[in-house]
Design goal:
With about 375 residues, this protein is α+β, with helices and mostly antiparallel strands. The chain contains eight helices and 18 strands. Bound molecules: flavin-adenine dinucleotide.
Length: about 375
């Protein structure tokens, strides 16, 4: 295990993109100040012992993997940062529902998707191209194009930091919901492995998302080749700046900055009263009579289009209204100012309060 007190020694060679000694070296936004101590854990035991040791000393710990869903303050993180770099994909069982695959938390997510498809296992294809680690996918129940990891996760292996014990959590115990779970905004859990149950077939799961179905030329509910779904999703995502590309500043983001608001019938009626010339927003029925509305539509209609700029080189992506980007010289303070301006604009225009999707570390909106 490496203990790296000063992260500047380990930052990427693209120095223009990263401020010295910054956790920005480990985030897709390229933002965030220094860590108190940075520890790289390549084995689960190392991660557990670091977290346990810090707890005994009363020091705060931040688990960081791909850094693609965090906004870290310009002052950084004063405690211990554990960079999770564990690896391993193993088949551990099989039954008539499919093959049980156990994946180490640090395993890069898109490598896993590619690997399972090559092995003839379906169920993750629509989640192609999402950055970050496998262990972070249960944190916010990662989802895209009609699939979410809750559809295929069978169990999550964790170290329970409160009880100082290892546990295996079933899907109901994980409390999965839209971009949420018991793990999000909690310092209790260190995810070590995730078990996925994947059917052995070359066919995709039923296509649920209209845009993807349209691009594939099928109707919702149909199945096509899972490999074709991956290829199509990667193209769709690249067109929106949603696949990491070091040469493309539109991808220097956390993906969607705001979740799509889920509105009560009363809130939804309030939005409709305020539409005036905005036209009718797209919407989807959600549980318990609620309605999900695209945050991107609300943001655009509130006057914040693609490319809208804040101060210090932060801007809405030129390809996707929901992605706030650091064009190279940004700060977390400037990014959050832009996010606040957008949130307040949408609230004033439609009476809807948007909530951030990433985890905010040592900073607030
Ligand atoms: C271009 C782009 C596109 C994106 N598209 C999507 C998308 O389509 N759908 C979607 O849902 N998300 C999307 N995201 C967000 C992000 O990629 C996912 O949330 C991803 O799962 C985060 O993984 P990570 O390893 O980078 O997590 P990190 O950013 O390192 O961590 C995120 C949070 O999870 C915690 N965490 C991470 N690993 C563990 C662990 N092993 N145990 C305990 N806690 C842990 C961290 O402490 C932090 O609170 C996108 C991001 C980008 C930059």
């Amino acid at each position: 295990m490496d203990v790296v007190p000063d992260v500047s020694a380990d930052r990427p060679t693209d120095a223009s993109a990263v401020r010295a000694s910054s956790l920005g070296a480990y985030t897709t936004l390229r933002l965030g100040g220094p860590a108190g101590t940075l520890t790289v854990a390549a084995e689960p035991d190392e991660a557990v012992s670091t977290v346990r040791g810090a707890a005994r000393k009363g020091q705060p710990v931040l688990v960081l993997a791909g850094g693609s869903n965090v906004v870290i303050g310009d002052d950084g993180y004063p405690g211990t940062v554990v960079l999770l770099r564990t690896r391993g994909i193993r088949v551990v069982g099989q039954d008539d529902r499919g093959v049980l695959v156990r994946v180490a938390a640090g395993e890069p997510w898109d490598d896993l998707v590619a690997h399972t498809l090559e092995r003839g296992l379906a169920g993750l294809e629509a989640l192609s191209g999402i950055p970050g680690s496998t262990g972070a996918t249960p944190i916010q129940n990662v989802g895209a194009y009609g699939q979410e990891v809750a559809h295929t996760i069978e169990a999550v292996h964790v170290y329970d930091r409160h009880e100082d014990t290892m546990r295996v959590l079933s899907v109901p115990e994980c409390g999965f919901a839209y971009r949420s779970s018991i793990f999000k905004h909690s310092d209790r859990w260190l995810v070590l492995d995730v078990d996925f149950r994947l059917p052995e077939t070359a066919e995709s799961a039923p296509i649920r998302y209209a845009e993807l179905a349209g691009r594939l030329g099928v109707t919702a509910g149909e199945r096509v080749s899972a490999a074709r779904v991956r290829e199509t999703v990667l193209k769709l995502r690249a067109g929106k700046g949603m696949v990491l590309d070091p040469a493309d500043p539109d991808t220097r983001s956390v993906g969607s900055f705001f979740t799509n608001p889920v509105l009560s019938a009363q809130e939804w009626a309030g939005v409709q009263d305020r539409l005036v010339d905005a036209g009718e927003p797209p919407s989807w029925p959600a549980p318990n009579g609620t309605v999900k509305v695209p945050a991107a539509w609300l943001i655009e209609k509130a006057g914040f289009g693609k490319g809208y700029s804040g101060a210090d080189g932060v801007a809405i992506s030129s390809k996707h209204t929901l992605a706030l980007t650091n064009r190279g010289s940004g700060t977390t303070a400037a990014l959050l100012d832009l996010a606040r301006e957008i949130r307040n604009g949408v609230r004033d225009r439609f009476g809807v309060v948007l909530h951030p999707e990433p985890v905010l570390v040592n900073c607030a909106l």
